[in-house]
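Re: duplicated header lines in exported structure tokens

Our pipeline writes sequence and tokens for each protein into one text file. With two proteins the header for the second block appears twice in some exports. Here is an export where it did not happen, for reference. First protein block:
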Amino acid sequence: MSAAAGQLALLDASQAQPDWRVRESARARRLTVRVFPGGRVEIVVPVGTRSRTVQQFVSHHRRWIDRKIQELRHLVSEPVDSLPQTVFFQAIDRRLTVEYRDAPGPFRVSETADGILVSGELLRLPLLRHTLHRWLLHTAHAQLVPWLGSVADRHGLEFARVQVRRQRTRWGSCSRSGTISINACLMFQPADVVRYLFVHELAHTVHLNHSRRFWRLVEHLEPGWQTLDRELARGWQHVPHWAIG
């Protein structure tokens, strides 16, 4: 496995693939695997996980991983380092054109009549992508936070605060203190799927588990949630590569 600096080589040669990555996370409590659009694979492991444990995990899930790679490989036709020419926020049914202007000074995103203009030194691709990531976070915060609040008000539920992040493995979470974290990439999901995710996390403010009582509450708040849950599980196919990388 070709690993980036500081990344553990936790897969043996028979399992290694050039587009696979193993990432240690201090927040991880168990091993998880995610296959992204384009077929990139990321395995997240708790700190201190042994190589043999990762190899056994991959062997156990290899059939599923290979199937997901085949499903998602064709979804990214542009090179990994390419920049988007359009952005479609399915959650709010809004499509934006993206223009780029080569300019010195700070990197900026400004609104245009039908989209956005990204200004900066066009040869500095990593900074352009970082600028787009910051814009995505800002836009998601402005759209998703009030939306979450309205869903909470509708069902008479409360949360302490909300934070929006660009997560790679979770669509949302709720802490014991009542803080709800939501993924900025929800902007690329259908509106009813986003609403279900909000209901799911708000239900955790009542039951901080996945008990029967939790699922009964989810069913009460969002009848037919199972279909939406399956759609959310496949949701990464809607997320463009630039928003993940």
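Second protein block, exported in the same file:
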Amino acid sequence: MMKPEEKSIEINGLNLLYLDWGNEDRTPLICLHGHGSQAHVFDEFADAMAPYYRVLALNQRGHGGSDWATDGYGRDKFVDDLTVFVDKLRLARFVLVGLSMGGWHSLLYTPKNQERVDRIIIGDIAPEPTAQFVEYWHNRPPTPLEFPDVDAALLWGRSSNPRASDERIHKDVLDKIYQRADGTWTHKADPAILADSLVDLTDPAIINRYWEGLAEISCPIMEVRGGLSPMVSDEVNDRMAKTAKDYRSVDIPDSGHPLTTEQYNQFIEVTSSFLGVRS
């Protein structure tokens, strides 16, 4: 697998890390990970797309070794970071791929930047979730902040990702944690993020903003749902199809919410034609 170059960029007073697979003469494809995740979640997908696009995966504020924010993690902060990122890299037109939270950011960014976004892939997220997912999120056990060793971290990683291979779980967990000087392992992500209640799931104001954003976007949108995920209901998916100007959706039947860790080969396969490449 082709290894990306890890780079850093100063944005809004924060040092943010991002992965660059090169190929600068190609159309940029910007990958935005989900809540509590990190940029390497796109490694296999990026490797498949690198011959056709300049793939860039951003570790968003507070995630994956990027600086933790002192001014918070409101959605508009993330969107403003994305705005500065593409301006600093002088990216005139590009594709957005947003998994989960990254999909929310895509819905908020694009309406004000229609001339720059060529198309969007949204990974298992919608303007509003199912009641089942809200109940799960609010009743889930708190994320452990420290691990005595890697094996303990792997047990935590497996508990929330039952379908990924052992190899992929190992990679995902090691991409999310680091070892402190005292030998304890802990998260690269800001603990404030890991404890976030995600008002997006229940606040009518932000939910309405996502619906309004979807309605305003003129470029093609593809929704990729996990067939085993409780996040995006058929009813909401149908409403998204009626709301958006150019919308299609596809399910990966044997995947839950973490599409690119559980079923990255299928994610590559179902998105390739939308992106104009051969899988």
